[in-house]
């Protein structure tokens, strides 16, 4: 069959290039110790930055809400799938992040796709950082807008892309913290050029919320900015909030427009109401229990200090994402396998997730890691890289 032959040829090519993927099966987990494919490993590649996915209060809220509402929402939000838990979460998120209104979507991918396809069309311009998350790029492409991608973190290039734009509607879009690099966008700089060129700034703060800012409210808090500077904020909930879905925060006009027209929202079953309730609990913890954020910050500091002392080739980052550059795909895979054999779970990230020649280990820190686990990881990394057959780092 032509399809199968073609797929097998593609698969052979991916294998030869070190680009085939494996899904590891996780079973029980306790803190950051996971049963992964039957082996006990310390997980250093989870996005559960604050440990909320396992926080007893979040788990018990989820359980109680499932008992009350049932499991699935059983409908699109526009038909019968919108529950009081969804509404409460939206109101709470809007108040916490300082926006007029919010919409709770099924995932970060769907949220970004929904915002971009609902707001943009062929008459609009969308300017994006080259390293924005794939769903932001996909959303702009699907919208039919003119898409200009500027070199990573280059605010002057972003301004050049806006300069002289003929389109009335201009949307400037960036990750708050870049998911594979861990560096933070210059949100204040982007807000300034957006204002200068009458563009709307949209930020995806998947990896900033829970991590950056004095109390972990994210990139806007860290930059001292608010809804007036960044009129659209997307907060995917599968990272530091420990759940699933995403909150889109904006003014009432934007949210009403999305409710009426965002196809990924309209034509998809609403997320489980119990998940909305659990996320409300996560937001309460974020607002009231400072210790989770403080523990994460300590762990980031400990890791970066030890790694610098050991001379590990880390990319510059002060967030929970700490990439260790391998360059070559096979080398990244070898490092990851060697770590696994020594009790650590750190996945290798390869193209197309990152640019060719920049394969890496994406190490993530969480509030649940212990100082001893971090210390042993750095020692082990040092040994693994030193013993590797490939060129020295
Ligand atoms: C920056 C960023 N935005 C959006 C997403 C997508 O969110 P979700 O996993 O909820 O679809 C991710 C990661 O998955 C991400 O890293």
TrEMBL record:
Q: Which coenzymes or cofactors are required?
A: pyridoxal 5'-phosphate
Tagged with keyword Metal-binding: no
Domain Aminotransferase class I/classII large: from-to ranges: 41-381
**GO BP: any one term:** biotin biosynthetic process
Keywords of the record: Pyridoxal phosphate, Transferase
The record's annotation in Gene3D superfamilies points to: Aspartate Aminotransferase, domain 1, Type I PLP-dependent aspartate aminotransferase-like (Major domain)
**Transferase is among the record's keywords:** yes
InterPro entries assigned:
Aminotransferase_I/II_large, AON_synthase_class-II, PyrdxlP-dep_Trfase, PyrdxlP-dep_Trfase_major, PyrdxlP-dep_Trfase_small
Instruction: Quote one Gene Ontology molecular function term.
Output: pyridoxal phosphate binding
Mind telling me which PANTHER family this protein's record contains? 8-AMINO-7-OXONONANOATE SYNTHASE, CLASS II AMINOTRANSFERASE/8-AMINO-7-OXONONANOATE SYNTHASE
**What is this protein called in UniProt?**
8-amino-7-oxononanoate synthase
What organism is listed for this UniProt entry? Arenimonas maotaiensis
Q: What is the lineage of its organism?
A: Bacteria, Pseudomonadati, Pseudomonadota, Gammaproteobacteria, Lysobacterales
What gene codes for this chain? bioF
